[in-house]
Please model this.
Amino acid sequence: MKRWLALLCAVLLLVSLAGCGEQPQPETDDTTEPVLTQTDPSSAAVTRIVTLPYTAADALNPFQTKSTMNRDICTLLYDALVRLDETFTPVPSVAADYALNGQTLTVLLRDDVRFTTGELLHPRDVVYSFQCAKESPCYAARLANFFSCNADGDDSVTFSLVEPNAQAANCLDFPIVQFGTGESEIPIGCGRYRLYHKDADLYLEAYENSSAMEEMEQQTLKLLDISTRENELQLLQIGELSAFYVDPASQKREKIFANEWDVPLLNFVYLGLNSARDHLNDAAFRRALAAAVDKPTVCASAYDAHAMAADAPFHPLWGEAPQDNVRFDPLAAPGYFDALGYTLSSNAKRTKNKQGVTLEMVVNSENAVRLNAAKLIAQQLRDCGFTVNLSVLDYDSYLIRLDSGLWDLYIGEVKLTADMDLSLFFSAEGQANYGIDSAGAGAQAWREWRAGTVNTSTFEQVFLQDQPFVPLCFRSGVLYCAKELQIEGEVNENDLYANLYTWSYQ
Model:
């Protein structure tokens, strides 16, 4: 009898333990206020928790945040109509499909998207989110060509464009929040995760209506406030952080014991050409000069290999970019100049009609990386036989010189939007229009490409013949990850944690 009683007690104990293994779900609230639910992260922390950085000194409202790291966290809290993949190609997310017809972009919405309150997403939520994004410094630039957004029945919305734009769908990656919550500290979203707190700490948890609920190795993530911490990379090395993103152009890159992932950016570095000046007013000379620039050396040396050389003004990884994107040929450049009548004199200097050729290059002294790039390019042109004077100026003096037109070459950088908008260069009001003929062949081809009347390859061919400026490279950021962290897939600027569902500690 005692043996039977002991066996019965053991069975009851096993049943009791199995019941304790169920994961508690955070409570939800049907109000329109931010939902910060209380839960115990230790109940989900069977293994080591992935910890991501954020700053409490900045907002976690996607329309108000100013810091890159908080913006990256917001991509986990708030879904978008489309997500841009590693080739900067739009992939439907909240959208089920989309279609562009002239200056009208119609988006069909999925019928199964729910906010963290449990309520279904409706077209009015998208219209409201568009209005919030339009007024936000984070998204205003990419939505500048969008005139309006209106609900179109119960399952779609229609965007009206100011001007034709064949790549307009690339700009639909603004965050979707529930109607009326955009001004809240934490708007209600429909992203992969929701925010909750335990004591003074913040956590993210995949919720039941999210695809991440099934995909995530670890469904609970911790957020670490680093606003008062001095050495973020040290936090990574001692195990307090799982990952940390660095832009090498603005923050010193360090060699640490960690894995590194290059993050392709749409930061476009180029050599400006003043087509109103002698020699540079000839497209053939501009093409020869472009060929003389050794772009891989510039990427490897000035940018410490965290850049991708480009011959056209499109990112080489972009899905629509021709695969033979880079066609520079520094070894052939001297022959091009010879054919144009720029002959080498006895002192190894090039002359045209017995006149020496001097080029004035200006660069901003306050950007050390671009200054190094300018020095390299100036030397490469000197090796071709030209006299190159490098004017290193503070930022205000640099802009004044560019406005004056008294220069031949300059090094610049712009941040392109995901629709590869080049109006910065080809519009007369564009911030990078210095020295470019807005009525030239390259500018006209871009307007036709933008309207969708010529394809990308045709535009690129015209651009390379006209050579209004010289593309150099697209910069990359660096995502440092803990050595013990297993990561698969690619990372990208627009969705830094796109592959988070693969992350797990060994």
Q: What stands out?
A: The chain has 13 helices and 23 strands.
